Amino acid sequence: MAPPRKLHIKSYGCQMNVYDAQRMVDVLTPQGFVETASVDDADLVILNTCHIREKASEKVYSELGRLRLARDEAAQSGRRMQIAVAGCVAQAEGEEIVRRAPVVDVVVGPQSYHHLPELLARADAQGRALETEFPVEDKFGFLPQPRPETIRARGISAFVTVQEGCDKFCAFCVVPYTRGAEVSRPVAAIIADVERLADNGVREITLIGQNVNAYHGDGPDGRAWTLGRLLQRLAAVPGIVRLRYSTSHPNDVDDDLIAAHRDLPALMPFVHLPVQSGSDRILAAMNRKHSAADYRRVIDRFRAVQPQIAFSSDFIVGFPGETDVDFAATLALVTQIGYAGAYSFKYSPRPGTPAAEMPEMVPAAVMDERLERLQQLIDAQQSAFNKAAIGRTVDVLFERAGRKPGQLVGRTAYLQPAHVFPGPGMSPDALVGQVLPVRIDSLERYSLLGELAATPPQHARPLAATGA
Ligand code: SF4
């Protein structure tokens, strides 16, 4: 039998890429590949790229420069290393990668990685293989299921893609071009995935999609199901104790999703709901198709049914034409909503998007100053939110033993890391996968420290952040 070939995947960016990297492993495992943590002893290196961050493609080319050296070293010791570029940069720059980086054997877009075995074989035969078309077939129908031992090794939390692509065309965003039009997976396929994960020890599922709450997959009754309805069904899968979903668009929050937050104890009261700006003028220029007031109303609908709910968001500062008045509206919105955390970035143009053609770029120094002010406000809110847990008893889903002997690490409903020492007679390993009440004593940076509590969590005092 041929010795296993070693596979190293370096993944950048969003949860979807983390999920795709796992599925690439599932595709290549039956081909005799095993994962390695080291580039240097890999027979195949895959860069699973992200196009969201600034200068994404330049970063890929410099990484490829480093890989060329690793490949030369492997060749000197008589070993062949293949290199593949996958993900959104591969989709956006396919031919350009082939032209600029001869070291690359395979370029594969996010909708085609189920073809990796054939592409590697084609690269062997022809020197190169490129596939960045959106294939007619659904890749999910062709992806092998992960092996039970692989699922167990990945831990008690898992991502499941339910939807891909986006039809919203926000002016700054490449996703509609790199991931294509919105497509939802059928309900039955998602239930089967979740049941299989639960049977192999997974306790928490995060449903993912670029625009996850636009989900409209075919249901077993022949009708399109909403995300809320799908969540209701998945909450009934034995073994699943926590459900999450990401990333949502405010315009796609419907009654079913609100009802799911009202009715499902397994659905965590923590929602990532990007808004990008608090200025209606900038929201219109971004083609977001909602106002700041619309966004506030959506937040209010969640809060009306689930007082424990907390939010995170995404912000872009310095979008073309953003004035001091526009930026002040963003600060006002953040202050009013009160976030448990948020991601904020300076605007940078993405080639091929409408915003990249817009004049009135905001000077870099102004962007820097605005970003700093926004991040200070968000940090203060996050810190207040985390401090509010001290002295309370909260539910923690335990994920793994900690780095210190006898320590156990888990997460709260709000994804805050929580650390406890269960004490003598209690094996940390036996508690992994359980939701247990923890009395929080203190905070160390972003982690909560506490001890297992005999009493159930207190929900009397809402944990939602208040504006700083
Ligand atoms: S909704 Fe999200 S994924 Fe879709 S275009 Fe806008 S920012 Fe991009």
In short:
One of its GO terms (cellular component) is cytosol. It is built from 14 helices and 19 strands. The protein has 468 residues and is an alpha/beta fold.
Task: Describe the secondary structure blueprint for this structure.
Layout: E1 5-11, H1 15-28, E2 33-35, E3 44-49, H2 56-76, E4 82-86, H3 87-100, E5 106-108, H4 116-126, E6 129-131, H5 148-154, E7 157-161, E8 163-164, H6 175-178, E9 183-184, H7 187-199, E10 204-208, H8 227-234, E11 242-246, H9 255-263, E12 270-272, H10 280-285, H11 292-305, E13 310-317, H12 324-337, E14 341-346, H13 364-387, E15 393-401, E16 408-411, E17 417-420, H14 428-431, E18 435-444, E19 447-452
Parallel strand pairs: 1-2, 1-3, 3-4, 4-5, 5-6, 7-10, 10-11, 12-13, 13-14, 17-19
Antiparallel strand pairs: 8-9, 15-16, 15-18, 16-17, 18-19
The structure holds iron/sulfur cluster (SF4).
Describe this structure in words.
The chain is α/β, with parallel strands linked by helices and 468 residues long. It folds into three domains: 127 residues, 3-Layer(aba) Sandwich (Rossmann fold); 249 residues, tm_1862 like domain (pyruvate-formate lyase- activating enzyme); 73 residues, OB fold (Dihydrolipoamide Acetyltransferase, E2P), CATH 2.40.50. 35% of the residues lie in helices and 21% in strands. The chain contains 14 helices and 19 strands. Strands 2-1-3-4-5-6 form a six-stranded parallel beta sheet, sandwiched between helices. A hairpin with a 2-residue loop joins β18 and β19. The longest helix has 24 residues. 42% of the residues are buried. Iron/sulfur cluster (SF4) binds next to α6. Iron/sulfur cluster binds next to α6.
